[in-house]
């Protein structure tokens, strides 16, 4: 799948950079060694604050800086991985933990649609061990839209990405050679027009208001406008209603 994506994008004269985390022997564990020089508060180590300051001052470890440069240069980021335990492999999660530092990937003023990566697109491309019917609202594994919400909203959208619909390759380990070839062809075909795709629908920031407790919740007028709708707005903001179908697997209007 990675090779197919590289070939399809290079065919469009795109410049493609690959981070093969296993080949790189990427360290997925965040620690004080991610920071060069003295800590701001060595007696009370707070990773987010310390790495945020280190990013601003150019004191992050070289492997983090290298990955951040790749992200800064990217218009489209594809995350290719096998679905492990309803999520991503540990090495990829560790990549997010270390590379998406405060100040670089997000701040508490720059998040969701105002995030630093709002001009960039992102796609999850993953393979599963189960067939597609297992990941439906009636399937034993549950709705794939619910499973994807923490990654697509909690990581990608949180940092501002325009999240495109995922590319899901169902159960290739038990598929026929012909079916696997078709998965690759479908992927290459999709990438020919990926720049024209609409992102997944998320709720705009201005639909939320601050409460007395300091949190952000849907404004009353937004909630009232949905009163007669049988479905919630998104997987996350379902308002105790039915989860909207395909909210995390289809672009807007699909």
UniProtKB/TrEMBL annotation:
| Primary location group | cytoplasm
Q: Which reaction does it catalyse?
A: 1-(beta-D-ribofuranosyl)-1,4-dihydronicotinamide + a quinone + H(+) = beta-nicotinamide D-riboside + a quinol
Q: Which GO terms describe its biological process?
A: cellular response to xenobiotic stimulus
Q: Give the species.
A: Latimeria chalumnae (Coelacanth)
* Subunit and partners: Homodimer.
Q: Which PANTHER family match?
A: NAD P H OXIDOREDUCTASE-RELATED (PTHR10204), NAD(P)H DEHYDROGENASE [QUINONE] 1 ISOFORM 1 (PTHR10204:SF34)
Reply yes or no: does the keyword Cytoplasm apply: yes
* Required cofactor(s): Zn(2+); FAD
The enzyme class is oxidoreductase
Q: What is this protein called?
A: Ribosyldihydronicotinamide dehydrogenase [quinone]
Instruction: Show the GO cellular component annotation of the record.
Output: cytosol
Task: List, alphabetically, the Pfam families matched.
Answer: Flavodoxin_2
Which EC numbers does the record give? 1.10.5.1
Q: Where in the cell is it found?
A: Cytoplasm
């Amino acid at each position: 799948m990675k090779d197919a994506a590289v070939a399809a994008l290079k065919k469009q004269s795109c410049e493609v950079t690959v981070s093969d985390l296993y080949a790189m022997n990427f360290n997925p564990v965040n620690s004080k060694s991610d920071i060069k020089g003295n800590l701001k508060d060595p007696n009370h180590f707070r990773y987010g604050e310390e790495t945020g300051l280190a990013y601003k001052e150019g004191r992050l470890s070289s492997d983090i800086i290298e990955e951040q440069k790749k992200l800064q240069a990217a218009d489209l980021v594809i995350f290719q991985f096998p679905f492990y335990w309803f999520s991503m492999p540990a090495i990829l999660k560790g990549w997010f933990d270390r590379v998406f530092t405060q100040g670089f990937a997000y701040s508490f003023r720059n998040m969701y649609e105002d995030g630093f990566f709002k001009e960039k697109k992102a796609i999850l491309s993953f393979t599963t061990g189960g067939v597609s019917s297992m990941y439906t609202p009636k399937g034993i594994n549950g709705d794939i839209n619910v499973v994807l919400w923490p990654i697509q909203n909690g990581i990608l959208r949180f940092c501002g990405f325009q999240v495109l619909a995922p590319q899901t390759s169902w159960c290739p380990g038990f598929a026929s050679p012909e079916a696997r070839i078709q998965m690759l062809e479908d992927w290459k075909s999709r990438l020919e027009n990926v720049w024209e795709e609409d992102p997944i629908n998320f709720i705009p920031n201005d639909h939320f208001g601050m409460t007395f407790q300091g949190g952000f919740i849907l404004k009353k007028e937004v909630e009232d406008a949905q009163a007669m709708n049988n479905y919630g707005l998104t997987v996350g903001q379902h308002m105790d209603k039915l989860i909207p179908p395909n909210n995390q697997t289809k672009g807007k209007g699909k």
